[in-house]
Amino acid sequence: MNLAFWRRNKEGQPKKKKSAVREWFDAAIFAIIAATLIRTFIFEAYTIPTPSMEKTLLVNDFLFVSKISYGPRIPMTPLAVPFTHHTLPFTKYSKAYSEAVQWKYRRLPGFSDVERYDVVVFNFPEGDTVALEQQEQSYYQLIRYYGRDNVWEQNHVTSRPVDKRENYIKRCMAVPGDTLSIKEGVVYINSVQAPIPPESERRYWVKTTGDPLNPTRLDELDIDPNPAGVFDSALFRYDLTPGMANMLSTWPVVKEVKPYVRAATQEIQVFPHDTAHYKWTEHNFGPLYIPKKGVTVHIDSTNIAFYDRIISVYEGNKLEAKNGQFYINDKPADSYTFKMNYYWMMGDNRDNSLDSRFWGFVPEDHIVGKAWLIWMSYGHGSIRWNRLFKTIK
């Protein structure tokens, strides 16, 4: 790290040796710079904290996420403490970054665009505002449930730039220009049924003869012996993969196994949160167009709920409604042209995932990278050896 190494010593003058402290300091600076460049532009390690992608990804799977697959994103908030995300270690509220310098969204060339059914890491789109005492929940969901005044009275509320929002990992189910719909829990893309990941989970009704299911056999099949719901001595609700459901249906004590589908009721938590026009549920949803850069759509009171956040938050315009007329940047508007591409993300554990069905589209500037490899996995008190160095599909 001696930047003057090319200079010759004066004749007869002994070369000055660096102290041990200086050598350690130089090595540390080099390691920090190298690690920062690697995690920013090549790959970064992540941990799976929730079961929203089971059984494709398990809690305490440790991943490498490729930044070069879609092209490394240039940091938008460059002034930050190395190896931190949004909060300083050992603190609750101290930011690990400064917003004194903010760069616009740019991305270096990558090997491909985000493709349908890729497993993708991205910044949480509704993470622009956060209630710090309840960071695991969407701030906007809290507002819808409890009201703004209550949320602000009971929490420290802060804002975060795009690249400092919480990292999420989901499967990309639809890309820009697609039309997505969900019928009885089954996803359709452009009117064609989407493939079901073989390790994906959803909830099933399991009806028995009245005899309990053997918990030891359930554990051998990697089924949680505690059902997601118990309704009487013969009716249970389990989170199962398609293979697990088929296996349970062969058991003598099981009379029926069928997917759980929520009744079509007004559900304020489901996107676009407009129950006057859209009585959708997470199991019956759409059809919904996924915005594509350069495409112009008509906007009115029946569809503005789809696009208001895109227009005002993600693409930085001033959006107002006055006397039945929409104004964008103080000009009357009945249409809008998208400036970015958007994606639709869903967890493989379909009935236990906070995903696009609840908060909508993922803008392209929120994309972090492609999930690539499980390098370590830990659960049930030991290493899951069969998951080590497993590629993610």
Automatic annotation (TrEMBL):
PROSITE patterns documented for this protein: SPASE_I_3
Topology in membrane: Single-pass type II membrane protein
Protein's name according to its UniProt entry: Signal peptidase I
CC annotations in GO: membrane
Record GO terms (molecular function): serine-type endopeptidase activity; signal peptidase activity
Pfam family, one: Peptidase_S26
A GO biological-process term: signal peptide processing
Record-listed E.C. numbers: 3.4.21.89
PANTHER family in the cross-refs: CHLOROPLAST PROCESSING PEPTIDASE, SIGNAL PEPTIDASE I
Reactions listed under catalytic activity: Cleavage of hydrophobic, N-terminal signal or leader sequences from secreted and periplasmic proteins
Peptidase S26 domain: residues covered: 22-199, 341-375
SUPFAM superfamilies linked: LexA/Signal peptidase
Transmembrane segments: 24-43
Predominant subcellular localization, coarse grouping: membrane
Family recorded in the similarity comment: Belongs to the peptidase S26 family.
Keywords per UniProt: Hydrolase, Membrane, Protease, Transmembrane, Transmembrane helix
Active site: S52, K170
Organism: Chitinophaga pinensis (strain ATCC 43595 / DSM 2588 / LMG 13176 / NBRC 15968 / NCIMB 11800 / UQM 2034)
Top-level EC class: hydrolase
Location within or outside the cell: Membrane
